Please model this.
Amino acid sequence: MEHEQAEQTLSEVGRVRERTRRTLHTFWYSNLVAGLFFVGIALLALVTDDARILTAYWVLGAFAALTLIVRYFIRRERELGVVSSAFGVDEAIFAALIAGIFVVNAVVDGSAGAGAGIYPAAVGIAALGILHRDRAELAAGIAFALLATVVIAIDPTEPMALINGGVGAILIAAALAGRKAERSREPVIPARVARA
Amino acid sequence: MTHPALRLDDTVHQRVRLGILAVLHEAASADFSYIRDALDLTDGNLSRHIAVLEEAGLVKVEKDVSGKRTRTWVSATRQGRSALDAELRSLRELISRVDGKP
Model:
């Protein structure tokens, strides 16, 4: 086999794998649902400080958001005809991100702790962006890190309003950018790699 | 040590089959029409190559009846994933030999 042919084959295989990965790993819908959830809690906190109502929103809202996201991916994958692994790298990063937030919040007190809790999310989201070459996701990770730094620097009396509103706004912006990027790509893959 | 070109597996190395395994390497499974469109193949061509891969134990084929529609789902076996990895390793080695890299 010639050198040039080997290089061409490798690059064709790389393209097919990359396109399949991009088809499977899309973040705009999850970002949108999670963004709306966080904006919701920020708005709710403006009208009530009743801990029971806020806790109920967190529990029911998180459950509803997760259900919507899982249903979306199941439906999308069935329609496209390509199914991702039940627990892959993305899910592992997401689990590490959530665990990181809990650990940081347990270790650091006050608004510094609330702000620092965003850093694991920033790292996790940026990692997903790098892994899948998704600019919107990477930008969201960087914006999360900036938000965390701002919260720690200004040390507001009510950090959660700024955090929830900020996180929600970043996620919604990433969702809109991600959706636009996805629409601008070819829908399904006329790779023409593999003519016999 | 054998030359990397001699380690290329003919079953895997054929371009359509390499394309099929490349798609399946990234997914738990893919249906027949997704692979056909992804690789720009005809039904007959894809069927033939899937049969070869299935016979070699590199992919698993399952039928799924949902409503009036029957879908054929294809997934790479562990052996199929390893075979693709080995193929890509051999190709990279081949290139680096020609380029004079270690």
